[in-house]
Specification:
With about 260 residues, this protein is α+β, with helices and mostly antiparallel strands. It is about 50% helix and about 15% strand.
């Protein structure tokens, strides 16, 4: 590893930690809890955050895409691809977090993987490069709540040296882990009317559907294949826990998720 830069990263004080944990435990919504956590961690020096929660016992049982909650701070296009392409399925990094507890550098987790480079893993690494996501840490929170597993990724910008990430973690890693566990515990007990955010494409197909457009119509408007439209509609139905597309449109309108 290169010599650490001469940056000075102040620790998150005990008072600030206590205040953040107290605010997390008092949060009345998932969004409120995520904002408390994000503000604290982004203030320490990290740039990109991702929390993925799966309500299932863990491997070998498969993850049900409809049961995955994603919370994110970073480029919305990155999250759109993560959701649309279900990159949490068959992803060795996500699998590691489901079977381990605590945090470890992403580069160290990647170094322990000796399996094939899956399409999901290759695509995930490509998206990290395209959107400027650099070195960071991956955490597994599987032991906090029975039957509720979660993974967390905390990263710097791509132009930052990994030594900087290690320096920030050396100073604040313990505090981040406590905050992550508090977030996970609180989010696991809060109502989750929408387990997974709709991607921009999913919202678009629902908006056209709300105007009476058919799959064929939408495919023509969006200049994509009908199968692509059907995929976006299926994922939107799963995200909204809707029985059919009409039901998904009604729920999306009720939740103010559409611009129509």
């Amino acid at each position: 590893m290169a010599d650490a830069p001469t940056h000075d990263f102040a620790p998150l004080t005990a008072e600030a930690q206590l205040a953040a944990i107290s605010a997390l435990l008092r949060s009345q919504s998932v969004d409120e809890a995520w904002k408390v956590f994000s503000d604290a961690v982004l203030g320490i020096g990290f740039d990109y955050l991702l929390y993925a929660q799966a309500r299932h016992p863990g491997p070998p049982d498969p993850v049900d895409p409809a049961e995955v909650l994603l919370l994110h701070h970073g480029p919305p296009e990155w999250l759109d691809a993560y959701v649309d392409e279900q990159l949490y399925l068959g992803n060795p990094l996500f699998d590691w977090a489901q079977t381990n507890r605590g945090f470890k550098a992403v580069s160290e987790v990647a170094a322990t993987y000796d399996g094939p480079v899956t399409k999901q893993l290759a695509r995930l690494m490509q998206l990290r490069r395209v959107h400027g996501i650099g070195p960071g840490f991956l955490g597994g929170l599987r032991d906090a709540m029975p039957g509720v597993n979660a993974a967390m990724s905390i990263s710097l910008a791509q132009d930052m040296d990994e030594a900087v990430a290690y320096m920030i973690w050396q100073v604040n890693g313990g505090a981040i882990e406590m905050l992550a566990r508090a977030l996970h515990l609180r989010v696991s007990t809060l109502p989750q009317p929408l387990l997974r955010p709709l991607s921009s494409r999913q919202r678009e197909v629902l908006e056209w559907s709300s105007q009476g457009k058919t799959v064929k119509d939408i495919a023509t408007i969006m200049q994509v294949e009908a199968t692509t439209v059907e995929k976006h509609l299926r994922l939107a139905r799963e995200a909204l826990n809707a029985t059919n597309t009409s039901h998904a449109v009604r729920k999306a309108l009720t939740l103010n998720l559409l611009s129509v």
